[in-house]
Description:
The structure is a single chain. By secondary structure, the protein is mainly alpha-helical. It has three helices and no strands. It is elongated. The relative contact order is 0.20.
Amino acid sequence: xxxxxxxxxxxxxxxxxxxxxxxxxxxxxxxxxxxxxxxxxxxxxxxxxxxxxxxxxxxxxxxxxxxxxxxxxxxxxxxxxxxxxxxxxxxxxxxxxxxxxxxxxxxxxxxxx
Length: 113
């Protein structure tokens, strides 16, 4: 269980870092990492705008996931499959919330997208 929770912690940190890089312009539009939808991939401007909007929910999700994993690792009674599933749910749910945030921001800033 500890390995799975550490892995989820690393995933949360990685997703937050990649979103921050895309939002700041240091991670160019690509087909591997980031919010890769038709809307955000439409242009470099859409990529940056979408990731700037996705950054806040990503930071919140990443922070909650890391905090949960640290608590679950340090409290022996929480080292269970349920804790791993809670962490995965936090991460997945939060990640899915970034997509509408990114799309709204792009459509507001670039109405033709």
